[in-house]
TrEMBL record:
<keyword id="KW-0812">Transmembrane</keyword>
<keyword id="KW-1133">Transmembrane helix</keyword>
<keyword id="KW-0472">Membrane</keyword>
<feature type="transmembrane region" description="Helical">
    <location>
        <begin position="12"/>
        <end position="29"/>
    </location>
</feature>
<protein>
    <recommendedName>
        <fullName>Secreted protein</fullName>
    </recommendedName>
</protein>
Length: 145
């Protein structure tokens, strides 16, 4: 059967065109036309099969899209949490800088008022300051506080 169809298509070039048009009509129109899907026979069967393939492909695409959206939402949530941690840390670092600067300024003013020249005190690192802040409320332990 395949050999006779091959021979026909090879001997009659117009037959290739006709087969192509029939295939196009058989595959494209059935997916569009509901009445063709409801028709009996070979055209109706082909129309229903093409419609099923199309519907299955649409459903699979929707599932893939839903999974991708879920993945993107999870990534957004992860990034939001990271941004919140960074903002919290930045807020603490800013509070540290303000506190140290204010304390040093008060020490300098106190020393100047008392006619003293002081060497710079050892500074607590941010990590030390953060640990102290967590264990007790920032206090007023510097001269001039």
């Amino acid at each position: 059967m395949n050999e006779s169809l091959s021979a026909l298509l090879r001997d009659y070039p117009a037959a290739s065109f006709i087969v192509g048009v029939v295939a196009l009509v058989a595959l494209v129109l059935p997916s569009v036309s509901k009445s063709m899907r409801e028709a009996g026979g070979l055209i109706g069967t082909a129309a229903r099969k093409v419609h099923e393939w199309r519907e299955r492909a649409i459903a699979e695409d929707q599932q893939v899209t839903a999974r991708e959206i879920a993945d993107l939402r999870a990534e957004i949530d992860r990034l939001d949490a990271g941004i919140r941690r960074i903002e919290e840390r930045e807020t603490l670092q800013h509070a540290y800088i303000v506190e140290v600067t204010e304390r040093m300024r008060r020490i300098e003013i106190w020393a100047a008022d008392n006619g003293l020249t002081l060497p710079p005190p050892p500074f607590r690192t941010f990590t030390e300051w953060l640990t102290d802040r967590e264990t007790h409320q920032p206090g007023r332990d510097a001269p001039g506080d």
